């Protein structure tokens, strides 16, 4: 959380639309690109909401950001990819949970988190843009990996759809810091504070079928040592 | 992941409805209660999808499970809580990311995850059920905490809504294990395997305003030592 820029330091310091304004606890809302980008860049996946047969559907999928767009990909047979490529209204939400906030009163228990909610419509990338985007995605997963792996062949590229949504109607919501108890509860003999939560790498697990002697590359050693 | 029961060991081994059937990579789909419950019980938050003014909206919120229901709560002023209490169709999705799957080919890169997608409508709990549910929620966050903290007073209870959705139209989707590369790529000199990801506790951060000498209780020491 220390890497986040100070909120509202930049460009879009006001919501782009009524629906993208944070209503509950509005002082947790942020609308500047730096804050929104930092949250998206720290995430591996998003939850995509769309409407199918009058029913809301929320599907988790890998995501990455480049410039002012959020990207996802999927099989050309995926019902979500097909639906979104048709230009349906969508809502994409990314949430990073940073801690459990334990207050002296049940009521003031909370969570520390950083989230982004983005409204918009996806567009499908053309073949050239698609391969470049998949490269960005792979490098988002493990910087340095693209140079090493076999690139998509024609068949694989044909079977993959890459979609992107502009981030022009996005908002961030952030809670950080200790609990906020009522004045009269401050002297209760109860431990209060934050249990931080963080997603970290475990020890890399080599494919059991890995050719003997294949070393773990430096870019992965670096990642998993952080 | 080792604590997961073996898939399809129980009751609902088939999807409850057409829309709750896993379509993409159907062998990753599970419909038994044990598998679905285990994923929900390991989560702190869910993403709730609903429709507002014809637009899909996806909002992250804390969740917990008891029996055959998924629970959420919110302020009685929250537009989401109010909308859901009205019985709107909803979709609740929980996703646990377990690792990045690094294949020899770009195409076969993947993620290991456990997710649940549940369709249904929420109902609002009455006042008595509400306090019991908030207790269950607090104990889900930190088992042992409810006995210690100040319980909600009348005003706080009045301002809090607890909602629950039946889990009778839910499905789980799970990917685990190493990458699955094409036969002809198996001899490429590229490290392949899984970078495990896990959410873990950091060192508890006491509220700066904590009364001096208030100890970290045993139930929190136990949690953060795991």
From TrEMBL, chains A, B:
PANTHER family: 5-NITROIMIDAZOLE ANTIBIOTICS RESISTANCE PROTEIN, NIMA-FAMILY-RELATED PROTEIN-RELATED, FLAVIN-NUCLEOTIDE-BINDING PROTEIN. It comes from Ferrovibrio xuzhouensis. Residues 1-17 have a biased composition (Polar residues). Its EC number is 1.-.-.-. This is Pyridoxamine 5'-phosphate oxidase family protein. It comes from the Bacteria. InterPro entries: Pyridox_Oxase-rel, Split_barrel_FMN-bd. Pfam families: Pyridox_ox_2. It is an enzyme of class 1 (oxidoreductase). Residues 1-25 are annotated as: Disordered.
